[in-house]
Structure formats: structure tokens, C-alpha cells
Amino acid sequence: MAEMFQGGVHRASRIRRAVVIGNGFAGAENQSIGLVRALGLWGRQSLHRVTRPRGGINEWLHWLPLSLHRKFMPLPAERTDFIVEGKKVEQLELIVHFSAENGSSSGLSSDVLEADAKQIAEMARQTFDIDGPLLVVASGRDTIPVSSAIKHLAPENVFVVQIQHPRSHLNRGGLPTREPPGSNVVLTLGALHQADFTALRNAASSWHAELAPLPRPLLVVNIGGPARNCSYGVDLGKRLAAMLQNVLWSCGCVRISFSRRTPEKLSRILMKEFGTNPKVYIWDGEGRNPHMGHLACADAFVITADSVSMLSEACSTGKPVYVIGAEHCTWKFADFQNSLQERGVVRPFTGKEDMFKSWSYTPLNDTAEAASRVKMALAERGWSI
């Protein structure tokens, strides 16, 4: 290896670039790019996407591992040895696990490459002497074969972070457990995201002319859509409409946003109820997305329980967050809701709230904490960012 030094530091020991392995779902990719931002690598990442075959009989095979679905047999994951608390353990790198998934806009560029493990590994090896190690950040079950293969093919040149619980042995990419089996696992309460201090400050500036003059308090309502483990129908929409009517007297204004998953029959209820109300603005999906502006400028939030990403983002602001529909959640969605309420970062939306009365809590800081753990793990290897 060529001996190259910069400022007294061996250049090959510094990570200055990242590859994001995406699965085509904004919620998963948003988490990866959020971690990349928190690590200071924003703008120095490329997106490589693996997509599951869709349409026809493929819709019946979604439960199969992608490796079988696409008849692709991945290479086994390479294992990395190092010392933790005096005991020798075998680790893949670092796995960030959070309670549930969902999401908002990923913020990634439209320049998307194919997730070819061999090409990425070869690039990491060939450019290592000049550009240093490559950080690989992947999120979602379908990305595991690719990230594992990259680690196997270029173990000395890459550092792999797998976000979301892989549901297989963690030393090779995951183990279904509620407790971290080693220091290579970070358990976070919420989803990783991009709504950090800098992003919110920029959004506040960008949206100042439109949102700053609005009457206060400003209540933002974010509506997701029913999920397998958080199922609901139009009844929730009717209940939400009635509750919002009850608290409208205490709001300077209300701004409502729907996600791409919101059923039309549910959004139609809110449109009919508030479409002509001068206090209420409903974003129709046209023009620039106000989501980051809402996070930066809102005084309080009401969010449907299915949307873990939107809840995680809102709970990172320290502003009051009210949840509707938590009683419909099961499995990890229910655990997530319970954890948020136990920490006091959310309260159930009842329709009896006075929005003039604010409350506070210690904001969630999962993305920054995960980034800190990544840096610690890199330091153990002798690398830095």
C-alpha cells in the first residue's frame, strides 16, 4: 500500500465517502441518508438501489428472501474480530436497530445506480490508497445480501452499517433480539432521519415568508396510512375530524398534510370537513413539500400512530406531539408507541387539548447517537471520518 499522509494522518484511515444501499422505499432510504448527514458525509454519497421484482406472480413472492426471489445466492458475510470488555467477539461491523419503520421523503438525488456488490467492492479496493475506506450504509431486509457480499469481497476496505433489524444472526447481519448482544449493535427508540439542527434551521429560513406570519399556535397534522401492524379505516378519519373541530378554538391555524399512503377515502373526510375553513390549510401535494418547514415552524403536532418516521422526526424537535390511532397498533408498532409514552415525548390526542398550553420533554436524538456509535466503532478499527 502506498504511504500517503495528510496533516500527519494516514489518508487511508479517513472515510470521506459513502455508498447508500437503498431498497426503493423512502422510509428506509431516509434513515440511511440521515445517518450519512449526521456523520458529516452529506453530498459525498451515492445511492445504489436493489429492487425486488414486482407485478404478476411477484406480488405473491414478497415474503421470500430477495436472494431466492431473484435467484441470486449471496456470498457469506465476512466477520471482523476485535476486543470488547476483555472478551473476543466476532462482529460484522455495526448494526443500527430501531423499533419500526415507515417514512417520508428520502432527499436523495435522482442519480440512482444498480446495487452491484462486486462493482462496489472493486471500487472500494481500487481507490482505497487514494480515497481511503468506503462507508456502506444499507437499510431494509432486501439490502442485506448486497451489504454482506460487499463486506465479504472487500473486508479491509469497507465499513458496513446495516440499519433496521436484519432478522438473522447479528454476527452475520442480524439476530432477532430485544437486547444488544454486543457493542456492534445500537438499539434506538425511533427511526433515523434527516431532521437535524442544520436541516431545521435551513427549513425555518426557507419557509419563513410563508409560515412565520401565521397566527399562533400553529398545529401541524401529519396523516400516514393504515399498515399491516397498525390497521385502521375511515372511522379514524371521522374521529380525527371531530377532535380537530374540538381543538380548533385554541389554534391560530392548522396545516394538514397527507402521505402517499393515505387512502383517498380518508383524506376525502378531512377535505370535506375543513376544505373551506379559513383556519385550516390542507397541502394538496402540489408544489414544494412543506414537511421540513412544518417541523421547523410548528408549535405542536398531531400524527397518526402508523408513521414511525414522522413521529421520530417530530419528537426530535422537543415540541408537543399528540398521537391518534395507537390503540390499533400491534407488535413493534405497539412497543414503539408504549416507549414514546413512557418517556413522555408523546401524548394521546383526545380532542380536549388546549393548544395554548405547551409542554416539553427531552427530544429524541437517535440519529446523532447512532452516528456517535459509528465513530466509536470506526476508532476501534483505527479509522475516522
UniProtKB/TrEMBL annotation:
One of its GO terms (biological process) is mitochondrial fission. InterPro entries: Elm1-like. One of its GO terms (cellular component) is mitochondrial outer membrane. It comes from the Eukaryota. PANTHER family: MITOCHONDRIAL FISSION PROTEIN ELM1 (PTHR33986:SF15), OS02G0535700 PROTEIN (PTHR33986). This is Mitochondrial fission protein ELM1 isoform X1.
